[in-house]
Amino acid sequence: MPEVATIAPPRRWDSPFALEGDALRAMTEADVQRLMQQAPFALMRESDFRKSLPLSGILKNDARIVSCEPGRIVVRRGDWGHSAFLVLSGQVHVDIERSGSRISPELLGRSRPRRRSVFESVAQLWRNRRAPECRNWNTEADETRRKSHREDGLPRMYLQDVPAVLDQFDTARIHAGQWFGELAALGRTARTATVFASEPTELLEVRWQGLRDLRRFDSQRILTTSMDAAFRKHALDEFLRNHPLFAHLNPAQLERLAAGVEFRTYGDYDSPQPFGQLARDGNARGLAGEPVIFQQGDYPNGMLVVRNGLARVSIRQHHGHKTVGYLNAGQAYGHREILQGFGRATAVPYECSVRAISYLSGIFIPTPLVEELLQAGAISEDSSTGRTSVVSSTVRLPIVSDDVLDFVVDHRFVQGTAAMVIDLDRCVRCDDCVQACATAHDNNPRFVRHGPTHGSLMIANACLHCADPVCMVECPTGAIQRQMSSGNVVISEETCIGCTQCANNCPFDAIRMVSIRDQQGQQLVNERNQLPILQATKCDLCADQLGGPACQNACAHDALRRVDLHDREAVEKVFAR
Fold it and tell me: Model pTM greater than 0.70?
């Protein structure tokens, strides 16, 4: 038996978006020409796009046409999104949360991801392959996997009584020519609303890699402008209404606020390299590379509500800066100073400096508009308390020492929703965690028991499942993605082409590139250059295991925990124990 098997390496468009799912049809040249003759694509210049990424190629391979019958649920609130939608014909309705009214999870067909049975879990002990990193590499298997992973295994759901739903719940209409879903697709966040078809509707769905390239090469910013307008019209109202600071605004005040806000971005969305480089270079160079949003001591010209991304909050100390907290999606800064200075002869300056870490987008509200709402009594001193305030427990971690906070923020671990924290005083180096991980993944461990340490605590080189996973930014095929149901960041074996972009961009060295084999144990090599075929692997939080993360369950000394570093109580419990 030969030791290697020669194959053609996978490429970006080997798996077109239109072929993902067994109920979708392939895009044809006629479909592409039809799209290029209507807005917004007809307004774009083809000469702006690269020859390797032409506008027609993006539409054919990174988009698909979806036909929806009345009642079809297009996206569900809380699911993680990877695509945006353009209404080609018909209309869809957006479920608006108002006065506690929201379509129930039962009507939306919520289901849990499939986990292995007890027998399947036990059978891993003898069914796992002996050869490392084996893959089922053949066309029939690829087609089977595509079908089994259709919409993460979730069936297409329908509302059974659309007229009753429209009567019972508040909805907004989105008509032909309008976009929706772009916020979740570009921000790598959960869907903020449920959208369903109320009549026969045709949609163009564009996966985020194609959306990114359309925006990147559109020099006239046609798509960016239209999407910002769509967010202002459909999502901004709900975003503001559900924020604690603006919960008491009446419809007229909310409309005034929405009309006066500005959309602002800091950093470079398309390039995560500064994020990874700054995490490796440390605090001194990190501050120099973080765009300043607010400067300590400056006049408060407005407040910022973070839509997505991460910001460092710091104060001057001696000849440098001391980190006192961080802001993530939904949190705000600047309102406290405006509130304290309202009605006084002199303004209260910003108490802290705020800097964007990598890429951040937010909603900026000018000071005169905030003061106008204060004058009307729509915002009060009481509304500044709680999770959005800089002096709140979300931003300051009073039990955790300053050096621990610097360690967590400087290394960007605050991105992690499932960081692997190991107490080295309790760890006996038995390696049971690594062995358990290997058993759960076909004898291939998905993390390295090594990483930065602070005192007796170590953050291991295991995927943190970041709130803003920059590893996804430059993946050309979308192989690395969030599971729609759980939000876990996972890698699809059938679409990973081994380009190493995700591994290079991960600031935490949590992604490994491995040489793969077929089921007979033969190493797979590129037929053109005879080099090994590589694929990316990483922790998937044991998404299909009954008991959850095998590493944590296997630790007999309670030395290993998966910690959400956005959770103040969890951070204090682990770092202060």
Answer: no
